[in-house]
Amino acid sequence: MKRIISLTSAALFALPFALLADDGTIISDGVPLHYSDEGTGPAVVMLHAFAGSSDLWESNGLMPLDGFRVISLDARGHGDSGKPTSSDAYGTQMVDDAIRIMDVRGVETAHIVGYSMGAETALKLATTHPDRVLSLVVAGSGWSGEAEAQTYGFISDALGGVATFGDFMAAMAPDETGTSEKDVRTGFAMLSAHGIAPDQDAAPLAATAGGMHEVIGLSAAELSAIGVPVLGIAGEMDEERKNVARLGEAIPDFSFVMIPDADHLSAPLAPLFTETVSAFLKD
């Protein structure tokens, strides 16, 4: 019997650590949050984009990340997390969710990596909980202001009038002819890589967008107080590129990398994106 136990223990320790990763749910202010906690080393918390999920970080190869403990979560209203339909349940509570997952998982400080909505959440987190942040990667969104708040308001109103996110995309899509079947397949593949499901309920996403004014609109003084290294990344063809680069006007320790020939959806899936983030975290 002892030999069987010994052999079983040895086999377990021989398994790749990814197979022993923790995948579960915590409750944050009454909302279930799905998370994955994988690897060993300094902690990295990853925050995904609007309408997507934590699937993004597996799609682009940042999870698992050699030498790091990576915690990714589906933001409330997204993925496998709970989906309140009131905007009062969002806003700065999304920042609180990131801190709560760190607390529950026993993480005192972490590197924070965010894309788009996740980048905006990461910046807000760094200004409200500076003692919990080792470094920041903010990609796909940057120094957002009134114009971006109005855009989120427009998105919230538009989503409030449809049943699914796919309906919203169809209504917002330009009326173009000549789109090839290959282009359509490529577009759906990128949406899937982000964890964006066209058939997901629009109401929670409308509520998410309706609360984002609480997260964005940071002042120059707030940004200049960020005392950790910050890496900004954006695709060359991403309309948010200027907002990301503009963070260098306020944040003391800021560097910027542009992903050539990439837009908002394709940038985080480019090999250069993953290589850049990995090198920054290991520096």
TrEMBL record:
Record domain AB hydrolase-1: where: 42-148
Segment forming the signal sequence: 1-21
A Pfam family matched in the record: Abhydrolase_1
Transmembrane segments: none
Keywords: Hydrolase, Signal
InterPro entries per record: AB_hydrolase_1, AB_hydrolase_fold, AB_hydrolase_sf
Superkingdom as given in the UniProt entry: Bacteria
Any GO molecular function: hydrolase activity
Protein name: Alpha/beta hydrolase
Lineage, highest ranks first: Bacteria, Pseudomonadati, Pseudomonadota, Alphaproteobacteria, Rhodobacterales
